[in-house]
Amino acid sequence: MLLNDTAAVITGGGQGIGAAIARTFADNGARIVIGDLDEARAKEFAASLGVDAVGVGCDVADGDSVSALLDVAIASFGSLDVMVNNAGITRDATMRTMTDQQFDDVVAVHLRGTWNGTRLAAGIMRANGGGSIINMSSISGKVGFIGQTNYSAAKAGIVGLTKAAAKEVAHHAVRVNAIAPGLIRTAMTEAMPAAALESKMGEIPMQRAGEPSEIASVALFYASQMSSYMTGTVAEVTGGRHI
């Protein structure tokens, strides 16, 4: 029970990697607030966890919405100990065809959303004696992928944001780390054309896609005191892809 009696907020927690993180945290004793743009999905999933959990509608690109999400954690559980900035979208297109809106939407959700969550959670945590913030980057932010100038830019920006924020709040016992997943088996990857999936598999030394639970385990490590002397780091969970 590595997170016993802690309160954790997870954005984009209604499905995929976010849901896997929420379930792993719940299994380790945390009380959970699920933030998701789809409020009904957030509430339904929170109810399925079988622990103290609340589902809340949240648009991470809107600072007021994120602030309201964190207020729910304080009101429901009396603290905010762990913040996972996981919410994300994709709007893939080549630079030639990508619209300004597609670029702005992805940057707003991933980069501004992570900034909103990091800034607001850090403010609460520093006043309460510390906490752990976990930001979701991507291997795409390290190497860049065709058709993802928006996504790769945002995910690379999350790494820089994480390192800068970690330096700002370390002396307040607030730790800020990032996870960079590779190819993870989710509904999105399972819908990929077979040829594209095979091509990506050829880049992975472990010769398989990762499971959401394998990202959740790393998030658990960062959330817990097992990583108490780590801040500003980026864990690549990629099966060795692009090492």
Give short descriptive properties of this protein.
globular; Sc_DH/Rdtase_CS; 3-oxoacyl-[acyl-carrier-protein] reductase (NADPH) activity; 47% helix; 243 residues; oxidoreductase; 9 helices; EC 1.1.1.100; alpha/beta
Short description:
With 243 residues, the chain is an alpha/beta fold.
Word description of this protein:
It is a single chain. By secondary structure, the protein is an alpha/beta fold. 47% of the residues lie in helices and 16% in strands. The protein has nine helices and seven strands, in the order βαβαβαβαβααβαααβ. It has helices at residues 16-27, 39-48, 63-77, 100-127, 140-143, 149-169, 187-190, 194-201, 212-223, and strands at 7-11, 31-36, 53-57, 82-85, 131-136, 174-181, 234-237. The protein has a seven-stranded parallel sheet, with helices on both faces. Helix 4 links the parallel strand 4 (82-85) and strand 5 (131-136). The radius of gyration is 17 Å and the shape is globular.
Helices, strands, pairings?
Elements: E1 7-11, H1 16-27, E2 31-36, H2 39-48, E3 53-57, H3 63-77, E4 82-85, H4 100-127, E5 131-136, H5 140-143, H6 149-169, E6 174-181, H7 187-190, H8 194-201, H9 212-223, E7 234-237
Parallel strand pairs: 1-2, 1-4, 2-3, 4-5, 5-6, 6-7
Helix pairs in contact: 1-9, 3-4, 4-6
